């Protein structure tokens, strides 16, 4: 399977956490990020061979949670099967011990611990203030992004007491080769468009077999590990998952405007679905986008919603609409549909990764898609000196030609944009006559063997 090790390329994160865990003072560190991103595995890696209490909270009653944590503390401190009466007692004994010896306390899925036991955060605040000489290393880790970011807010009792925080993000595309070294760069962009940079999904991907065999094994076969994954995440994170399902289905079918989404799910008032959209944005499952380089993007009515998570985008486009057939193990036609449609599907991810690359390559302070009425530009960007870049990006199995350039130039002229530099990005190279154009044009190829590379005139 793909790299198989979940902390490939987590070098900076490991270094940061090792500094926290090896310090000679009290530490309070907050680690958070979406499910499956590798938080628990990272913490287990950096805390191994250290005196650590690693407790994973669950969705259980207050009494069960306290009893469960008490048993873990009793085992950790060699106190036997001890039962504490309240949260202050159980944490106080840990803080008392931490004055003599440096210990690591990792509270994983912290939202399940604190949501039903609101006093926990206040208890921790009191003890952190009281025990000045403590050598405790307290790590609070959670998958509920909104809850964990709330801990970081000014109004939270723990505000000002943390010594560090980190939001663990998915693996960026440029590091995917470390996970699946067997694949060329075209195969990697195809894979990334399906499962993104979530380490758990990457460890399931088999680099010794082709793309469609992986899709069959991971999404379609009986017992496939990712067949129900979006269901699992939605039911874990959200109430009323049915409404969220309908919103995601609308977006996957190309209904990207607020009125289109509202109509699709059978509502008349778009204000009623705003809280649901906000929740999906907080979970990083969807995003709201506006045309690039707008002066007041928050005030514009020209915006779209898109599915931002690759696995959700793939699943709602190809699995959810045909779920009945897939569940009956009759998925041959679904796989044929995916094979036929995938190049167009991958082109959206290629465009997204191209924009990310161009932003770094040309030191752009802003960059993104641009659209106005029926005209679209793949990328419009602004440099540090105010210079404007426009790009045409093609994921297709033939070279870009002079027609592609003039298509981009004509769109720019119709929109009356003052563009200083043009960029052509191609999966398959460029025809020779393109290099004869007397314009400021950059050529970038995304080759199978080397990935991104500049072409010289």
UniProtKB/TrEMBL annotation:
Residues 315-400 form the DUF234 domain. Residues 7-203 form the ATPase domain. GO terms for molecular function: ATP binding. The lineage of its organism: Bacteria, Thermotogati, Thermotogota, Thermotogae, Thermotogales. InterPro entries: ATPase_dom, DUF234, P-loop_NTPase, Restrct_endonuc-II-like. It comes from the Bacteria. Signal peptide: none annotated. SUPFAM superfamilies: P-loop containing nucleoside triphosphate hydrolases (SSF52540), Restriction endonuclease-like (SSF52980). Coiled coil: none annotated. This is ATPase. Pfam families: ATPase_2, DUF234.
